[in-house]
Amino acid sequence: MRKINAVIFAIGLLSFLLPFIEVSCGENTLMVVTGKQLVTGFSVSISPEKLPPSARQNKTPVQRKFKGEKYARGILALVVVSLILGIILKYPLASYILVILSAVGGAGLLLLRSRIIQRATEKGVGFITVRFREGYWLLLGVFVLGFILNLFYKRKG
Description:
The model has no long low-confidence stretch (mean pLDDT 86). Helices cover 57% and strands 18% of the residues. The strands form two sheets. The chain has a three-stranded antiparallel beta sheet with strand order 2-1-5. A two-stranded antiparallel ribbon has the order 3-4. Helix 1 packs antiparallel against helix 5 and helix 4 (93-124) packs antiparallel against helix 5. The protein is an alpha+beta fold and 157 residues long. A hairpin with a 2-residue loop joins strand 1 (19-25) and strand 2. It has one domain: Up-down Bundle (Butyryl-CoA Dehydrogenase, subunit A, domain 3). The relative contact order is 0.22.
């Protein structure tokens, strides 16, 4: 079970390198943000052509800086801790702890999703749409799989 947990949570760690969210305005993609960028923060330059006519103030690109998300940092910490504990601890203690960490990680991802959608709705005034991409869904799958496997794992003998 240690190897399985290690692979599952290593995949979770790698999912932070994949696109997490895509922000669009109509048909135009404004930005694609990876999990790593959500953790560390990022800046973006959006060309005026991608914005709706009512949001275009001049011909210069819109510069925006975004701070790292505290929920994303917490989720990354949970993945790292789960990976380490999944390798170090033995059954049944590892299974009990990983069930809890997976449940908290999954709930944290759902809270992060809710927070991002709320911010986009408030600031986008109906123009902005947010689509969650591969990295987000893969990480959610990692937490669900980690929860289910460790909850129902029975040692042979």
